[in-house]
Amino acid sequence: MVATAYHSSPPSSSSYNEEKYQLWLCDRQLPATLQILRFVAFAIVGFGVWDVWLSPDSIGQTWPVRLLALMFVGICFVMLRFTGVAAHWRVLSLVASCTLFSLLLIILMRLPDGSLWGMGGLLLSAFLFRVHSPRFAVAAAVFNALTIIFVYHIFTIDNRILFNSEIFLLIASVGNITLNSADDKSARQAFALEGQLQRMATTDGLTGASNRRYFSAKLTDEVERAHRYGYPLTLILLDIDRFKSVNDRRGHGDGDEALKVVASIGIESGRGSDTFARLGGEEFVMLLPHTNLDAALFIAERLRSRIAEQPIFGDSGQFCVTSSFGVSALRRTETGDALVARADACLYVAKNSGRNRVVGQRELQQHAGAALRA
Q1: Is 282 a catalytic residue?
Q2: Where in the chain is the domain with CATH 3.30.70.270?
Q3: Residue 371's pLDDT is what?
Q4: Class of domain 212-373
């Protein structure tokens, strides 16, 4: 039963960080991509009006392709703006860039002498989309080069013009790849710096566990989600037994080492969705979404056993510590503060019952009932 209620299979660190980076990059670059699509739509209409003014007879040849390009831009905008495809904005941006390049090239071929005086606008289109990926930029360059060869062959363009066009495109592509490489490097540095600053703001400096401020915000969010979606949420409160005597007898250095060891065990025992935090002093908390009370009691007992058996190597030699645990499960319409208060009451019972034990809210109710009968 416990195995079905709690799964400890966190994703690999590298893939998880890469996924976080992609979502971070999407949040920051998607508005710019949408703005580019608006500009492209304006340019398609604007250059259409310009071409009519320069060559009124050409509109009959180019309007179907212009309309197709405008429709394609609109579809890309809607997909990025209003659907979940936004998570794949780089792939969609690459497809949009290559497709618009091809459509613009066809429009130029249908204009009088378009292949001669329209190359500037064509090359400009190769620079529009910043996808922060040199790999994608290389793919776009190869696709655009093959497209020029294919379209020029269909329209039987002179080989000299084809050669010059490919040289111009090569120069534009090298610049595009260079810019995307620089974009990718700077974006990853900014992401790493932001992550470092966030960790400093949300992590306890001594133990590496989450700090009290982060836990309070996480508790509020998880309680709200648990009430909304109806999944179980449990909380484990633990306190190192007789920690003051450790500091008094062995020194604060050994006390700090004990805190680090306990925190390390708690962090390693959690899943990616769990939160292990230091509330202050020798008191820690573990928040377990999608975990029922029985599973939480099992996890708490496993933590208690591991902490008691783990040797700690301090400045004054090897020693061990024990911990007491209180476990509570969220009730319907209950607040996070009430969840913590009940776990704290369970912890109090564990301390007064001999320490180095786990007390859940069912046992707390039995203890209260016995007290009333007495």
Answers
A1: yes
A2: 212-373
A3: 47
A4: alpha beta
